[in-house]
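ERR on first pass: missing label on line 2. Operator R.T. fixed the label and resubmitted. Corrected input:
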Amino acid sequence: MSGFVHGLSYGAVIVTVLMTVTAFSLWFERKLAARMQSRLGPTLVGPAGILQPIADVLKLLQKEDIVPLKADAVLFNLAPPVAVVCAIGVAAAVPFSPTVVAADLDVGVLYVLAIGAVTVLPVFTAGWASNNKLALLGGMRAVAQSVSYEVPLVLAALVPVILAGSMRIGAIVQFQSDHHWFVAWPFFLGIPAFVIFVLAMLAEANRIPFDIPEAESELVAGVTTEYTGMKFALFYMAEYVHTLVASAVASALFLGGWDGGPFRPGLHWMVLKTLFLFAGLYWIRWTLLRFRSDQLMRLCWRYLVPSSIALVATAGVWVVFVG
Amino acid sequence: MRTVQVTRRVDPHVNIDRYDPEAELMLLHFGPQHPSTHGVFRMDLTLDGEIVVKAVPHVGFLHRAVEKLCESLAYVQITPIVDKNDYVAPMTNEQALNMAFEKLLNLEVPRRARWMRSLFAELQRIASHLLWLGTFALDLGGALGGGSTVFIYCFRERELILDLFEEVTGARFHYNTHTIGGNRHDLPAGWSAKVHSALNVIAGRIHEYEEMTLHNKIFVARTKGVGVLDADLALELGVSGPILRASGVDHDLRRDAPFHAYDEVPVRPVTATGGDCFARAQVRLGEIRESIRLVRAMVDNVPVGSINSGKPIKVPVQTKIPPGQAYVAIETPRGELGTYLISDGSQFPYRLKIRPPSLHALSALPYILPGATVSDAVAILGSLDPIMGEVDR
Amino acid sequence: MGVKGHRTVDDTGNFEHPLYKVLFQIPGLTLAATALDHVLTWGMTNALWTFPMATSCCGIEFMASAASRVDIDRMGTIVRASPRQADVMVVAGTITVKMAPRVKKLWDQMPEPKWCIAMGSCAISGDFYRNLYSVVPGVDTFLPVDVYVPGCPPNPEALMHGFLRLQEKVRAMRQGAKVVGDPNPELLRVTKPSNPRLVDADRTAALDEAQVSSAETATDLEVAPPVSVPLEAVPAPFAASNATELDGVLADFGILPAGKQGPPLVPVERHLELARRLKGLGYRQLVSIVATHWLAGKGRGGNEAGEVEHHEVVYLLRTVGPGTRVATWAVRPLAGQPVPSLSEVYAGADWQEREQFDLLGVVFSGHPDLRRLMMAENYTGHPLRRDFAADTAAAPWR
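pass 2 clean. output:
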């Protein structure tokens, strides 16, 4: 019973903090992108425009809620909340510190990957239910992309699992805390696996350069083309939460989680690493152009999958003979 | 990288009913309002999965009846109308139009005015190609990504050139600075120093654009071998300008049929051989460099003298042009912009046909789109640099 | 909109819900509601997402206002490509009769509450295209415009000002006030561009002097060395052509090159043959096809009493490379007489002939797909004919 209360209370805290951080990460991204483009970004709404995301949400709350006449209304309405729930659900198993965790599951890595993989379902549902050709194309692309990139994502996540000998994320972090961060040693396994994990994660979260399901210049707004007001906001939020949580997972699996190296470990390290990774993803986003869908597939199946298989095999050999 | 072999010409009027009945074709109406159609342009794409099987372009959504309007306007009143045709390079519109009037009137334009026209045309070319690069990156990279970064960089530099024009003519665009027999506005004192400082900024930053586009692996992967237009078809379609030069045809009216001051300032046309979107980007970026070179060579050496022949008339609105027909063409950033003028001797043109380069470029779409994906279609359309104002007129 | 059963209308015409009376009894509720309303209004005015209905020149200035100098993102305005997620439609550019139904449809697809900014004189009134057959005289003929931003095109700063005016209007509307009056001069301070214009620091008297004197002394120019043209880049048949050959071909056809009066006239039945010959001579590029409509009594020389109503179709071809030459000829079909289509010789004639058919009614026989190009499929008439009145009623809003 106490475990339930613990999970509930920490879960509530994590979700609240996550939503707040997501809202302000929107502001942060807009400012960062603006500075990268020699603009100013939001300045007039609150000090340095920091209240901009709040104004956006307040505005979206007041917008008319349109369900297209020929859309499948049930699925159309169901998709956005499911997307958010899936994205937040992943956060349940991510330990931010030895204590700040909703549920440090024994199969934490499996859970995270499984729930993360489900996020494509609402996206495809939205594309299908909108009864819009552009949205349908976006949904098709999303499915193809997510199913493909699931493979390197899982294989890359297997590397720390093999090295640490546990699927519990807390144990993986503890192992790194006791030995080395996986990107530091064995770096020839850790760094490639980390890079593959981040790339696959970008593809899962539909971020540039893999944002072809949304692809404004081709598909107008992709799967979200027909969504208005809060439903659109939920999709938008799901994308950011997904990226944020995935950054947290990557920090835990490869960057030592709450371990601070020579300094005292603590929650702040995990938060810092997550935000640092998150900002790095923004940087990629506002620098690169977009792949075409067949190039995306080729990158996945021709390069990422074979190399991640090789990494897993090497990790096994390493554990048996060295570690 | 895909290699596209152009073996036989695509039939643009192919009967889609004869396509594999097992395939589930989808008709995608692309436009007329779409973020990547560069204005109001519509393509009906028949898709097999994501592959385009047939493309039917529809134009005319911005048909503003310019040619009809010109038939009821005095000659000097037409210049501000045609400004709006190619709204990315208004200077060149005015030049092509007024040169046709001057040809039928047998007017000699003063040397200083001709130099100024060349100067404006080259500055306009830089601005126009910068805008093209920005919007092309937007097509490839999306409004919420790296594409918009390139876009905003390009617009930042374009503003510098618009400032220069604003100082001469008082307008950011739609200048109305050319008139029959010369120019209206003389260069202000101290202008050439500003031109130099603006060009130094742009010249110093071109390598940034090349890093973000031509040297960027994703950009190369998205454009190499995409939308290959062979020289033979391009010529038959009347495609001209950078698109034709990207197909390997060394043809530039500035060198081959010099107008303005180009007989005194030789131009080195930029060509490429791929005929694909990448080659078009190469040509346009090379032309920015070439135009910077030309402007730098010209701006300090504009000859002194009158900027207008002072002819023909006391009351400009009552200019009458003797009966006859004339065709004049100049090389704009998009290619050969021609004006076919038929006069019946009155003070209004009897028929004024504007030959827009973009219309001919767009007519290549049904030939080069089949076989491409939807993403490629966006890239191909962007690489043709269509300006719907002059396509539809 | 009819009045629903449980609602009543008060004297001023406002709807009043019966529950209001109960709600107003709750202490403090009105205070809270007012505060909440202020917060919601604040959110609404500060996140005006735009849907750019950018059709022409003003669209370029719209793009410029999103770029770094003016940057409408400063006030939280971002551009959404889908009308479903937008609050403001900025109609930037001329709206034609063919486009107007699409604009209306996109407007209907936007969720309430929504606003419309008419940017530029074409969107406001149709500008000088106002009285023409194909242009809508201002979008307020079919859209409820909230803010007009005049200019041709308006500067990005002017558009930013328009947005700030719209914010004021939204605020006032939410408070039930009517928006009238002059623009707030205070707004002009905010709409100043975030980057200064090119500084004028260079402009000193000495510099002006030097500039003028350098212009006066400039006699010869630093001319770039002539560039040899890589001949292999130009396939041989493109370049091969010369004037005498063209004259020879024309003489073959029994016609002499005409002077300024216009290109030589070729019999309709022989012109396809001429085109093939010229293509073989290196005239590989189709430049243009220009048709003209001559009314009875008008001709090339101006007023010619003996002329009957006829068309004249001029064809222009070009050789490629240095010393490019244009070959021109014309055919002269009488009204309704078909001209053999050039599209089997030059692929580009396809669209050119469609345009001339559309606008002038010249019929081309043997064309694979002779549809209208510019006007809508169901349009009747050929607007560029001389007997077509430009301001003919063409749309329901005239």
